[in-house]
Specification:
Layout (H helix, E strand, L loop, with lengths): L1 E3 L2 H8 L4 E6 L2 E6 L7 H10 L6 E5 L2 H8 L2 E2 L8
Parallel strand pairs: 3-5
Antiparallel strand pairs: 1-4, 2-3, 2-4
Length: about 80
């Protein structure tokens, strides 16, 4: 599990195969890194502008590891890709 704390990191991990887990006040959700629901604008708002006060972004190479550690719900838009 790698916590993403900069736009540069976000862009780096977005280009890799793997999974983002997004934690916020509405819950914890897992996305494939290429999911259209995960974008730099939302990342910047949640992590950079709001200093991760209400959550954060995490990168996982393995979906099983992500599920065991954070127990996220699957994104409805990319669940078929998992």
């Amino acid at each position: 599990m790698i916590e993403i704390s900069s736009a540069e990191q976000f862009k780096e991990y977005r280009s890799k195969d793997g999974y983002f887990v997004v934690k916020d006040i509405t819950g914890i959700k897992i996305h494939v890194t290429r999911c259209p629901d995960v974008d730099i604008a939302n990342f910047n708002k949640k992590v950079i502008e709001n200093s991760s006060k209400n959550g954060g972004y995490y990168y996982f190479e393995d979906v099983i590891d992500a599920n065991e550690k954070l127990k996220p719900k699957k994104c409805e838009n990319c669940r078929r890709l998992m």
